[in-house]
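Run log, item B.
One chain of 359 residues. Sequence copied directly from the ordering sheet:
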Amino acid sequence: MAASKSSTPLLKDELDIVIPTIRNLDFLEMWRPFFQPYHLIIVQDGDPSKVIKVPDGFDYELYNRNDINKILGPKANCISFKDSACRCFGYMVSKKKYIFTIDDDCFVAKDPTGKEINALEQHIKNLLSPSTPFFFNTLYDPYRDGTDFVRGYPFSLREGVPTAVSHGLWLNIPDYDAPTQLVKPLERNTRYVDTVMTIPKGTLFPMCGMNLAFNRELIGPAMYFGLMGDGQPIGRYDDMWAGWCTKVICDHLGLGVKTGLPYIWHSKASNPFVNLKKEYKGIYWQEELIPFFQSLTLPKDCTTVQKCYIEISKQVKLKLGKVDDYFNKLADAMLKWIEAWDELNPSGASTGVPNGPAK
């Protein structure tokens, strides 16, 4: 039995579901009660001549590599090939305010009472309630039912700030890197923690793209999943890169990032030996990347996401280019991404927040 739904699904006409895939989307059958009212953007990776089957009754558009090349022309090489990072093309072509993205090996999870979890509905609740990045509430998200701000929480900060990102978690197969997968091959996450929290300002986090939602109008241009996969020396760091850039920009513009609920059921672990090959450079590069992002400051005149992102690309070239030439290529791709974003989204070309950066 599917969980009950309200008669009008939340944000029905304001949200796109973006799915990267190389296979038939049979997994949508189990999500039908929750996803069917929404528009899907499917980004087909790999061989564009392969026919991807989508179950009947879903409203969707499907883009393959030929479509990406046709729509973006010379800028198409900023979209990764043979890597789930290709999903960010879906963010670019969407015309909706919100995006939910999910992998095709993510199934409907159940809460401890056995009720099916409507992950999309929980993400929407997260995005529609404020965040509290400037002062931590020890009862976690004070805007959820049954909780509030604790004693000692400044009243001047209780309005919170707009939530730009909702980062969900996974039951069953945790999102581990290859070395951890290799030493803990049988580990499964069975802990359901009924919590949502705002990640504090100045704190980075490892963002996973397989169960993620965001406000496209507030932060969309920063959700670039980098140059990964075919022809690149690194993979499986696409969502990490987007997460680090996004968090720095959210901190600068006074926006919030939530993590915790909702859970999905991550059905299968990817091959740790294949993953190790993809992650190898990233595992040691990240020891330079994290300090880079931790010390990154954006000037006050960076009042839009695009301006912030262009500034980050300059800093990447300046400070990370010496780590490896790959980062020079990545910095150039970041600029192409922003140019392509603004060409496809001319009315929203100055994405940002009305009040500019937080003081």
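Observations after the first pass:
- The two ends are 49 Å apart (CA to CA).
- The chain has ten helices and nine strands.
Flagged for discussion on Thursday.
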